Amino acid sequence: MAGCAPAKQEEVTQAADFDQTVSTQPVTLKLLVNAVRLSDLEFQTIFYEPVKKKYPHITLEKVTGKLDQLIVSGNVPDLIVSDNDWHMRLQDADLPMDLTDLVSKSKLDLRKFVPETIQAVRNLDPKGKELQGIPYSLNAGALFYNKDLFGKFGVPYPKDDLLWSDVLELSRKLTRMQDGVQYIGWDPRYPDVYVSPYTQPFVDPKTNKALVDIPLYRKTLELFQKVYEQPGFVSGKTYAYGPEGFIGEKRVAMMADWASKLISDFLQAEKDGVASNWDMVTIPNFEDKAGKGRHTLTDILLITKNSPYKEQAMQVIQLVTSREQQMAMSRSSRVTVLNDPEVIKAFGTDNPSLKSKNTASIFKYKSSPVAQPNRYDKEVQNLIRAMRKEMAINKKDINTVLRETQEAADKKIAELMKQ
Predict the structure, then answer these.
(1) Model pLDDT, residue 7
(2) Stretch (H or E) spanning 100
(3) Which InterPro entries match (predicted)?
(4) Alpha-carbon distance 105 to 107, whole Å?
(5) What is the pLDDT of residue 9?
(6) Based on CB atoms within 10 Å of each CB, which residue in 106, 244, 271, 303 is the most buried?
(7) What is the pLDDT of residue 343?
(8) Are strands 176-178 and 298-303 parallel, antiparallel or unpaired?
(9) Where in the chain are the domains?
């Protein structure tokens, strides 16, 4: 603890030095949430209230609406909350400014962050020079499970360090019809989840061709095929169950997801009177990626190029990434971006519901490097996810699904390139 005090004091001093140079005239900063999860409660506790307390002259206003419509109407936000997976559409709109100079001016120490988060943001610039955002929250994959269903069917709970083949074996013991209810052992969700640790691009940057019909997706679809072959798993037109089947209906025993997302769902459900007896373990992997985390996914704050209040926006970023605020966020179950053992250890301590959970599993694996993003990633990703239906419902073989999806993705990219 003694080693952390000087760094904390230095951070406060640097922030104060920057604050002295910034105008204290009342301003309203418009903040847009772009395709990431930020509840109204989180907006209040992470952003609005701390900013109002430290900077009474700064008012944060959460704006809503489609990005292109906001741009056309001249209602461009000053700050955008996004993540590195959804950054390219912002780049296409020429919105993010390079924060390098503001980081230097404000003396924001990038060394305090988990290195993978800064690298993930650097990776958003093809030239690797610009810093188009600052990380403020990290994500990590985990396997969640319903303890009641494991108990009901007498199956031992999952443990850390499982492989996907282990999860499949557990699933086979839990996928069954009982008392008129079809229980599902494991919803495998999306194929790209399994490719996540491989730093595998969706699109070849040299040829602008999709990377779908490749060995990694073949291996993944072979796993999915075994899941769909379980008696009772595919029912009519239903082949995916998601959070509703897992948390709401409580008939799915296991599901992997981003930890902060599913923990948020569990806590919200509990608040709404739908409590679950759940726990979590490390994200499983294929054998050749055992012990590796999913790709680095970090929520970021970026300042738009046309904002008239760039320095005030930088004050918001400084505050949200300060040790004090990151500690508060960690205690309330947001994964910190700081490379600080004490802040990490505090995760979830303000949530009584998490006290008995294996939250250490979130931090056990280091996240994997991110592939170079491409402006057509999301279109290809959507087609990759649609492969599930082609297999489960339309009963197409893996070769056909990979070939047809590759062709569809290449066609979609070619169409978009002409626009």
Answers:
(1) 56
(2) helix 100-106
(3) Bact_solute-bd_prot1, SBP
(4) 5
(5) 67
(6) 303
(7) 97
(8) unpaired
(9) 4-138+297-364, 141-189+240-293, 190-237+376-419
Tell me, what's the pLDDT at 4? 45
**Stretch (H or E) spanning 173:** helix 164-174
Give domain 141-189+240-293's CATH architecture: 3-Layer(aba) Sandwich (3.40)
Rg (Cα) of the chain, in Å, rounded?
A: 22
Neighbouring CB atoms inside 10 A of 165's CB total: 12
Question: Residue 156: what pLDDT?
Answer: 98
The distance from CA 105 to its chain's CA centroid, rounded to whole angstroms, is: 30
CATH superfamily, region 4-138+297-364:
Periplasmic binding protein-like II (3.40.190.10)
Distances (CA, A) of 41 to 35, 62, 268: 17, 12, 11
Q: What does the pLDDT read at residue 201? A: 97
β-bridge mates for residue 176, sequence order: 183
How high is the pLDDT of residue 25?
A: 97
Rounded to whole angstroms, how far apart are CA atoms 79 and 61?
A: 10
pLDDT at 105: 96
Helical H runs in 202-346?
215-228, 242-243, 259-271, 310-320, 323-331, 341-345
Long-range contacts of 45-48 (CB under 8 A, 24+ apart): 45/328, 45/332, 46/136, 46/320, 46/325, 46/329, 46/334, 47/316, 47/320
Is residue 297 within 8 A of residue 121, CB to CB? The reply is no
Q: What is the pLDDT of residue 48?
A: 97
Residue segments in the chain with a per-residue pLDDT below the cut of 70: 1-10
Q: What is the total residue count of the chain?
A: 419
